[in-house]
Amino acid sequence: MLKSILETFTDSNGQARLSAIAGTVELSNLIPPTVSYESRGNLLIIGAYDTITTLAPQFATLNSVTLLATSAAETVPASKHSKVFFSHDVTIKGYLGAFEVNCRVAGTLLDTYINLAEVTIGGDSFDLVVDMSAESIINTEIPAPGYYPVGSGKAAIADVIEILPDMLGTFDKPKYFRLNNDICAHSSRGVSGCTRCVDACPAGALSSNGHAIEINPFLCQGVGTCATACPTEAITYALPEPEKTQNFIYRLLNSYQMAGGVKPTILFFGNRDEETVAAKLPSLPSNVIPIALEELATIGVDTWFSALVYGAHQVLLATNIAYMPVTIDRVLNDELIIAQNFLTELGFAANRICLFDLDADFVGFPEPLLAVADNKIAVMDSGVLAEQLSGTKREKLFSALDRLHAQSTVKPTQSDVPENAPYGSVECKTDDCTLCMGCVAVCPTRALHAVGGRPGLQFREQDCVQCGLCEKACPEQVLTLKPGVNWDTESRQTAVMIHEEEPACCLSCGKAFAPASMIKMLTEKLQGHSQFQGDAIRRLSMCEDCRVRDIFSDMADDPTSQLRV
Fold first, then answer.
1. Interatomic CA distance for residues 383 and 409, integer angstroms
2. Angle at 115 between CA 109 and CA 121, to 5 degrees
3. What's the pLDDT score for residue 64?
4. SS3 of 15, please?
5. What are phi and psi of 115, to 5 degrees?
6. pLDDT, tens digit, 9 for 90 and up, residues 245-302
7. CA-based nearest residue to 311, from 262, 240, 245
8. For residue 116, how many C-alpha atoms fall within 13 Å in the half-sphere facing its CB?
9. Contact 223, 272 (CB under 8 A)
10. Is residue 127 exposed (0-12), middle (13-18) or buried (19+ Cβ within 10 Å)?
11. Cβ neighbours of residue 55 closer than 8 Å, sequence gap 6 or more
């Protein structure tokens, strides 16, 4: 559809755009991982008695139809339907092929919850659920596959009547994400931290088990907000991978400029909005280059700024409010606020990255933020593209910001950031710090790390995602998060010493093994304890190896002595 529209533009920019899009490898993974659903055609319809009994005959071709009425049993006449049950108290969880429905059925002798599928069809679950309740029982912004919260909407009911007869058999869906809990900032050693991904999921697919994030691949609908919100890349989008997306943008802009195109503007849109974009494209200038994404929120601030560094004069985000759940809208706007804050702090127009109403008049920028001579996007050397950003999404973002900072006329040194933005530093009250390294143990990015060889705590600001794990884990409560952006590249990327001390040396072998202040503190606190009387207190000033040898030496001399320290 888009291609036929693009072919109608005959000016130089239009031809360059067509050539670039046609000649750039599309965004896709060759063999994406998948999850499978199995539906046997066992349907449950929930709602008012009159409504569900009227609808039921429409699904006669399915394997079974069970009706669960929410109206009071005593007000309903005897039914000719053998599978009509009544309940005010219903819970549903699951997805296509595996909906577990528990309820208290009116009129039963025992006032207990039952698994409705076991009672009605002799199985563990239903395959499909049509929920005609005024308020959906599963209250997620994006319904699970196989769950149809149609309410009383006639148009939605008509769609379901058409769709459901085909919902039998095995269905495969891409597994949209990858999860690496080793670098997750959610929890560590019993301390709770970041919840950005859980808060960003409109499908209810993410949850915490108390010590790690779990993602239900059967509930995941691939909107990508979790990966966009994740500051450490513990969750990454997999269809396509972030690296493929940015490579695509890089090559597309390069091809456009090599073909003679000028003043490129990137227009990102979700696949479901392709028809709308195609209809509006003829009214937009030919230097607006549309890029389709699985979902608009699958990319964020790092990709937007990469596009500006690669030569785009502007990045537009085409939104269709009719398809934008509240959570997706919030995540997208949070990212946009951060991006526009960076731009204004650097002295650039905030709407270099912005939401774009396709019905509004387009106002472009005549100049890029970086000249071609600086970003080198159109420089070819034996077919190898030059100056492409690399590293993690965080490294790419800061690399792009550093390039823009070099061109800035205001040259900020330190800037505030919007609330909850994952950028900043950590302050330490060094007088009370014992260098216990509890903060180092929980830091997911190694922003805080030990010096090695002597008691000391170092910090690298660029790696800090402001998750709060260190602040909560500190037993002395001497650490405080300090949100913000340090625009000095060298100091932001350099590990600085937050606190260091003279080491305590082992009384036996002389090896440095702990901060002197910690040994002093422990000695003062434990000298009155029964287990640290006499020579036992000396063991606090020994390294681990010498302490063990000293204990066993005492036991050898006096086998009846108690094991102490």
1. 34
2. 100
3. 95
4. helix
5. -85, 110
6. 899 999 999 899 989 999 999 999 998 899 999 999 999 999 999 999 988 999 999 9
7. 262
8. 32
9. no
10. buried
11. 45, 130, 132, 157, 161
Give me the phi and psi of 420, to 5 degrees please: 75, 10
Instruction: For residue 558, give both structure tokens.
Output: 């006096």
In Å, what is the CA distance from 311 to each residue of 15, 253, 351? 18, 7, 16
Two tokens at 277? 């974009």
For the beta carbon of residue 415, count every other beta carbon within 10 angstroms. Answer: 15
Please determine, for residue 320, whether its predicted confidence score (pLDDT) is greater than 50.
yes
Both tokens of 30, joined, read 């060759």
Do residues 96 and 37 make contact, with C-beta atoms less than 8 angstroms apart? Answer: yes
The one-letter amino acid at 296: L
- Round to the nearest angstrom and report the end-to-end CA distance of the chain: 77
- Whole-number percent of the chain with pLDDT over 90: 68
Cα–Cα dist 304/249, whole Å? 10
Residue 43: alpha-carbon gap to chain centroid: 33
C-alpha 341/C-alpha 415 separation (Å) is: 9
Take residue 386 and report the two structure tokens written for it.
Answer: 């030059």
The stretch 158-165 carries a mean pLDDT of 94
408 in Cβ contact with 489 (< 8 Å): no
Mean of pLDDT over the chain = 89
Q: Which of 260, 247, 256, 311 is nearest to 289 (CA)?
A: 256
Q: Which residue, 232, 302, 301, is CA-closest to 446? A: 232
Query: Per residue in 8-54, pLDDT tens?
Result: 999 999 999 999 999 887 666 556 789 999 999 999 999 999 899 99
Residue pointed to by tokens 């260091």: 500
Compute how many other C-beta atoms are within 10 angstroms of the C-beta atom of residue 266. Answer: 24
Q: What is the torsion angle, in degrees rounded to the nearest 10, for the CA atoms of residue 397, residue 403, residue 406 and residue 408? A: -70
Percent of the chain clearing pLDDT 70 (strictly above): 91
**Alpha helix stretches (DSSP H) within 386-444:** 393-407, 438-442
Query: For 351, which DSSP code?
Result: G
| Residue 168 in tokens | 């039998």
Give the residue among 269, 358, 365 at the shortest CA–CA distance from 317.
269
- What is residue 498's DSSP assignment? E
Which of 79-83, 298-302, 320-324 shows the lowest mean pLDDT across its residues?
79-83
Alpha helix (H) residue ranges in 194-315:
196-200, 225-229, 242-258, 274-280, 301-309
Least confident residue range of 50-64, 116-130, 203-217, 377-391:
377-391
Sheet strand arrangement including 114-115: 89-95, 98-104, 114-115
Distances from the Cα of 338 to the Cα of 8, 49, 106, 170, angstroms: 37, 50, 53, 42
Q: Number of helices (H) and strands (E) in the chain: give both, helices first.
A: 18, 31
Tell me the pairing of strands 414-415 and 485-486: antiparallel
Contact 212, 179 (CB under 8 A): no
Q: Is the CB of residue 264 less than 8 Å from the CB of residue 289? A: yes
**Considering only CA atoms, which of 157, 485, 202, 442 is closest in space to residue 330?**
202
